[in-house]
Amino acid sequence: MSGVVYTDTQQGRCSRILPDLIRARGLLWDLISKDFRARYRDARVGVLWAVLHPLLMTLVLWLVFGVILQFRVAERGIATEDPFAVFLLCGIVPWQFLAAGLAAATASLVRDRDLIKKVYFPREVIPLAAVGSCLVGLVVGLAVLVAARLATGGGLSFGALWALPVLAVQCVFMAGLALLLSAVHVRYRDVLYIVEILLAFGFYATPIFYPLSLVEERLPLWLAEHGAPAWLAGAYFANPMAGLVTAYRQAFLGNRMPDADLLVWPIACACVVLVAGAVVFRRSAPAVADHL
């Protein structure tokens, strides 16, 4: 057995994050597996919900925007070269990964308080495991997306593999947010409710059921017509998921490398959030058990 003892001093050192996670990789995988199984353990159809969830969300949005409001959609210019259902699914899958991962990670330390109080281990394992269990659901959702793309007559080539770097950026972004939000939530239990509200707002502020090009064309004109400040347009594009969702579509539906300008801001946000989350989490880690 290793003679390493995980102490409060180690918990506060940012330089120890990567070595600690490597050492605790077995625990990380065990928690990811446990969280994923527990999510569907009591459900009648079990893991099949990982497939049904994005499909049902796509069905609802398709019925609203593709059937009931189809004339208004056409008037607004929300037209796509690909089947609208596949277009929707390509936005819903990464968004559900974000929403489910952040909600689970934010509450993870409070949820696993008993484990934290009993055993010394790198606390980062818990929020990262919450994100990791949702990553399994994302993989299932992407498989559904590929099947839907092929079933509707769309083609896939090696260009679709450009979705992997986009996924890497999203994972880094979510890991940073998971560390930051979970650490703050331990002290301020209102954080989870704020996250849920922001996610509900973010769903409509992200180009999931409309293309980003529509916002680029219409939003500045609308702001000018109504005398609103021009910086509000920039506020919309400050959402890194706007670029990431569009990049996913260019990779999966366009079979090509995403435009570089779509990823510059998400990459910058991911790096900043990861550093901020790691620093805040490590500095608060020694006192986590005291606040639980």
What report would you give on this structure?
- The chain is mainly α and 292 residues long.
- The protein has one domain (45-291).
- It is 74% helix and 0% strand.
- The longest helix is centred in the middle third of the chain and has 27 residues, at 125-151.
- The chain is globular.
- Mean pLDDT is 82; it is low at 1-6.
Instruction: Work out the number of β strands.
Output: 0
How would you state the average pLDDT, rounded? Answer: 82
CA distance, first residue to last residue: 30 Å
- Separate helix tally: 16
- As a percent range, the share of strand residues is under 5%
Q: Radius of gyration from the CA trace?
A: 21 Å
Q: Secondary-structure element sequence?
A: HHHHHHHHHHHHHHHH
Summarize the amount of helix as a percent range.
Answer: over 70%
Number of domains: 1
Low-confidence stretches: 1-6
Provide the structure class. mainly alpha
Largest sheet geometry: none
Shape: globular
Summarize the structure.
The protein is mostly helical and 292 residues long. It has 16 helices and no strands.
Q: Characteristics of this structure?
A:
292 residues, mainly alpha, 16 helices, disordered N terminus
